């Protein structure tokens, strides 16, 4: 081995060893850069232009922006959005923190199950908690009396719905932040006589600071840019995201929609900057000498945490389950017979069963195209010598979608691909454009997952195969891809579920032929078919769950075969 | 080999996609008809014209109108069917409609067809205002049954009423124009100011208020007679109220679009839309249809329904559409919620 490495290093110095490969890699690198530019950068540029070009004269002007700022009700919507988003953060962040603490720093029983259940909102479209809230706290709600004189239609409903929708996102970030802890810090604190509370305040929280800020920003941005919850349960309360939707869908006023969309981009970009800044000032919390922290036994703590987490889960599952149950009831609250009538989608607005079939098809394509595309680009970035410019473009654009709300991306796609001068104009109105927009929307998370997996592989694999005169694609097919299978299946599942549940990104892009299940939920609720909307949402959750289970099972099965070598003696 | 097993389902999917080809002419029809009405119309038409397939683009009247106007430069629709005549008149003013005299149009009541020759649009049926009043919830809340529009503005109904947003819903729009016609401009707006205090929500669609009343979510929903009668027939505990001052209404009508890609097939749909078969299908949903003698009494709708509709000039309504909607939006939509 040592000899081989020596020989390799000598070979690297001499360079031209794998140059035909290199040429292919360069070409692919440029291809990736062009692809990402087309489907991520250009739509965003298009929406930007739309917002600063006067529709009458075609001149560059700030008039459209000024018009929106001056329009009556704009300030109300902005304040409304800020209020509910901040309230959501205030509700979700402490809850998710305690939940994450319980999962990582306690010996509470059933932690694995608790975690799975806590992530279940990821399987539902954001409209679903809204529908459940109507059944729970609406004027005919099961628990109407809990609210007293307050109405669920308005800020209360929006905040509760957004809390459901954003909770798993916050939890995932905080779990990572709390997952690693240095036991030495706790020992030191204990030796110094610090009380439990003091240890929590001076050791645990400061170490989780980065995760807290990051989770807070994610929740804020998600709540600010989602319009699904507000659409269902917002009543007459005005929020910006819904305003953008109304401008475009209700009044076909694309320019105004673009301006509001850009304003929604601001908090997201701001979050990203803050996050960068915080990350920069952060030092590694775990060094080589760290000792893993194991929570000591403490029955009172575990009991209290168990009760707390149980309470949170009951809330989450209620918002998921009530809509499901309601979808089988004939006419709530007057006729409680069980029925499947609300699943007869063809008798209702929204697109019928076609919408569901389209969604499954779209999600499958998104999983396939997304996983392979993301893997391809990530592989080139991690393992191949790319031209610096192509590398820079790919890297930047792969991280950009994180900061772009689905609504904004969807609008950008209209402006970009509905433009007659765009040679890809033909994509407009097809299922393909929905797939591409969805892949772009969820690109960053997938990219980070696969990049991490690739980075764990030794670069020498490529070097060795090069010395064996194998082109790199053979290595990818025979070695890299099989080793990365777990990550690939994770990403495929992520794409599939996200594509199934997304509404914001596709709401402007569907046509009657390509209407999707999430959109159907929205339209059915619009037409007053609340039970039908609940039924379609139920179907989405069931499909997402089934697909997750199947992909996980397939993933671990293939994984066992592909990674059998790990168990073999050397 | 596992990579093949991995790819196989996707290869099958690809093959399936490629197989989805279209055989005959597809007409794109923009409509604001209710989803549960469309199917019967489509089945009958496609039975008579097996070579033509209808593709509906459905949304509320306001949205469909806005969509048509936005696509003025390159129209996507071949035919507009079941869209408010007051909206079609707006399109006509923009020069977007292709005048055409469908075969058999002379059999329709004159008042339900455009007066120009050849007409720009032909009426199908009349849809008009009705209030859904949930008797069970009203009893619980101690609400008296309102008999008139004026009653609805009384303080006792505060937060109990839902109505459609006139900017998106044709039903909401004819309510507003009827009030302006009945009470006069000044009194009309002042009436809506008072009514606004009682409105819990303005909904996107004209059906939703009645559906919410049927579900007891809000006891009173301002909607239209088809939805109201259908929900009552389906067992919802609602009474239908037809306010005594007069009922707002509009015509659902059919028109051809200039620049449509399939003019010949579009004319066939326009011909069908005025036929007796079509009118007999409309009759299942509406108390008043364009062809005289077809309508039958509906047990939930009063026999003198046609006489109770307000007198209105659809041309005036269409000409003032933008102004009325802008004023409405300024007054009630931009205003932040009252606490």
TrEMBL record, chain A:
Residue ranges of domain ABC transmembrane type-1 in the record: 78-275, 356-551
Entry annotated with the keyword Transport: yes
Gene3D superfamilies: MetI-like (1.10.3720.10)
Keywords: Membrane, Transmembrane, Transmembrane helix, Transport
Transmembrane segments: 28-53, 78-104, 116-137, 210-234, 254-274, 304-329, 362-381, 393-415, 427-446, 491-511, 531-558
Keyword Transmembrane helix annotated: yes
Compartments reported by the entry: Cell membrane
SUPFAM superfamilies from the UniProt entry: MetI-like
Membrane topology listed for this record: Multi-pass membrane protein
Family: Belongs to the binding-protein-dependent transport system permease family.
NCBIfam families: PhnU2 (TIGR03262)
Protein name listed in UniProt: 2-aminoethylphosphonate ABC transporter permease subunit
Organism taxonomic ancestry: Bacteria, Pseudomonadati, Pseudomonadota, Betaproteobacteria, Neisseriales
From TrEMBL, chain B:
Signal sequence range: 1-23
Keywords of this entry: Signal
Pfam family, one: SBP_bac_6
Keyword DNA-binding: no
Domain of life: Bacteria
NCBIfam families per UniProt: phnS2 (TIGR03261)
Record protein name field: 2-aminoethylphosphonate ABC transporter substrate-binding protein
Organism from which the protein derives: Parachitinimonas caeni
């Amino acid at each position: 081995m040592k000899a081989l490495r020596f020989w390799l290093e000598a070979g690297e110095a001499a360079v031209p060893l794998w140059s035909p490969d290199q040429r292919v890699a360069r070409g692919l690198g440029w291809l990736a850069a062009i692809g990402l530019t087309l489907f991520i950068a250009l739509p965003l540029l298009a929406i930007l232009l739309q917002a600063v070009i006067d529709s009458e004269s075609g001149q560059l002007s700030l008039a459209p922006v000024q018009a929106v700022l001056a329009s009556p009700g704009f300030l109300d919507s902005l304040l409304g959005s800020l209020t509910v988003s901040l309230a959501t953060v205030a509700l979700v962040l402490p809850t998710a923190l305690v939940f994450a603490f319980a999962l990582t720093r306690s010996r509470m029983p059933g932690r694995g199950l608790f975690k799975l259940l806590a992530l279940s909102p990821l399987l539902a479209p954001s409209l679903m908690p809204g529908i459940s809230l109507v059944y729970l706290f609406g004027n005919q709600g099961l628990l109407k009396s809990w609210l007293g004189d307050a109405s669920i239609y308005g800020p209360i409903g929006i905040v509760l719905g957004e809390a459901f929708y954003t909770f798993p996102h916050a939890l995932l970030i905080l779990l990572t932040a709390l997952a690693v802890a240095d036991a030495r810090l706790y020992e030191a604190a204990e030796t110094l006589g610090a009380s439990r509370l003091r240890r929590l305040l001076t050791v645990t929280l400061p170490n989780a600071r980065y995760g807290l800020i990051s989770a807070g920003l994610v929740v804020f941005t998600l709540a600010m840019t989602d319009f699904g919850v507000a659409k269902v349960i917002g009543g007459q309360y005005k929020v910006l995201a819904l305003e953008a939707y109304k401008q475009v869908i209700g009044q076909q006023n694309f320019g105004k929609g673009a301006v509001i969309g850009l304003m929604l981009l601001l908090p997201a970009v701001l979050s990203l900057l803050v996050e960068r800044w915080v990350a920069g000032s952060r030092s590694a919390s775990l060094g080589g000498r760290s000792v893993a922290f194991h929570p000591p036994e403490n029955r009172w703590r575990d009991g209290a945490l168990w009760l707390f987490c149980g309470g949170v889960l009951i809330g989450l599952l209620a918002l998921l389950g009530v809509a499901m149950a309601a979808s089988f009831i004939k006419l709530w609250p007057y006729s409680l017979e069980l029925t499947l009538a609300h699943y007869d989608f063809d008798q209702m607005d929204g697109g019928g069963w076609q919408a569901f079939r389209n969604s499954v098809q779209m999600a499958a394509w998104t999983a396939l195209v997304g996983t392979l595309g993301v893997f391809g680009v990530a592989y080139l970035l991690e393992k191949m010598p790319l031209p610096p410019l192509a590398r820079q473009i790919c890297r930047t654009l792969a991280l950009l979608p994180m900061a772009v709300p689905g609504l904004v991306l969807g609008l950008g796609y209209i402006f970009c691909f509905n433009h007659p001068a765009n040679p890809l104009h033909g994509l407009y109105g097809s299922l393909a454009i929905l797939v591409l927009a969805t892949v772009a929307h969820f690109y960053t998370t997938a990219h980070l997952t696969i990049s991490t997996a690739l980075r764990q592989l030794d670069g020498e694999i490529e070097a060795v195969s090069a010395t064996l005169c194998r082109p790199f694609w053979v290595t990818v097919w025979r070695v890299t891809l099989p080793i990365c299978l777990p990550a690939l299946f994770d990403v495929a599942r992520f794409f599939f579920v996200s594509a199934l549940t997304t509404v914001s990104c596709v709401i402007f892009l569907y046509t009657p032929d390509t209407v999707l299940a999430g959109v159907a939920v929205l339209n059915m609720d619009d037409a007053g078919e609340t039970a039908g909307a609940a039924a379609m949402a139920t179907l989405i959750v069931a499909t997402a769950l089934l697909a997750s289970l199947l992909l996980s099972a397939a993933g671990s099965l293939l994984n066992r075969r592909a990674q059998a070598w790990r168990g073999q003696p050397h | 080999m596992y990579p093949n097993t991995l790819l196989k389902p996707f290869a099958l999917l690809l093959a399936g996609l490629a197989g989805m080809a279209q055989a005959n002419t597809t007409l794109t029809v923009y409509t604001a008809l209710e989803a549960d009405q469309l199917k019967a119309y489509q089945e009958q038409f496609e039975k008579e014209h097996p070579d033509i397939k209808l593709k509906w683009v459905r949304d509320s009247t306001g949205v469909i109108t806005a969509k048509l106007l936005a696509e003025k430069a390159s129209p996507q629709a071949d035919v507009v069917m079941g869209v408010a005549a007051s909206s079609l008149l707006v399109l006509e003013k923009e020069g977007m409609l292709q005048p055409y005299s469908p075969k058999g149009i002379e059999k329709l009541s004159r008042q339900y067809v455009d007066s120009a020759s050849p007409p720009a649009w032909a009426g199908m049926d009349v849809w008009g205002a009705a209030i859904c009043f949930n008797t069970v919830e009203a009893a619980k809340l101690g609400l008296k049954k309102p008999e008139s529009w004026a009653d609805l503005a009384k303080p006792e109904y505060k937060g109990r009423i839902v109505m459609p947003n006139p900017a998106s819903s044709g039903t909401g729009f004819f309510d507003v124009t009827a009030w302006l016609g009945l009470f006069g401009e000044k009194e009309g707006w002042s009436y809506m100011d008072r009514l606004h205090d009682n409105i819990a929500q303005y909904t996107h669609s004209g059906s939703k208020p009645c559906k919410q009343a049927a579900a007891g979510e809000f006891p009173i929903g301002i909607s239209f007679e088809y939805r109201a009668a259908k929900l009552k027939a389906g067992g919802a505990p609602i009474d239908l109220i037809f306010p005594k001052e007069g009922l707002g209404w509009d015509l659902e009508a059919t028109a051809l679009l200039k620049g449509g890609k399939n003019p010949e097939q579009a004319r066939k749909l326009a011909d069908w839309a005025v036929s007796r078969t079509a009118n007999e299908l409309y009759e299942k949903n509406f108390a008043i249809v364009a062809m005289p003698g077809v309508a039958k009494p509906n047990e939930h709708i009063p026999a003198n329904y046609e006489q109770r509709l307000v007198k209105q000039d659809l041309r005036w309504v269409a000409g003032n559409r933008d102004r009325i909607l802008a004023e409405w939006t300024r007054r009630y939509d931009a205003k932040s919620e009252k606490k």
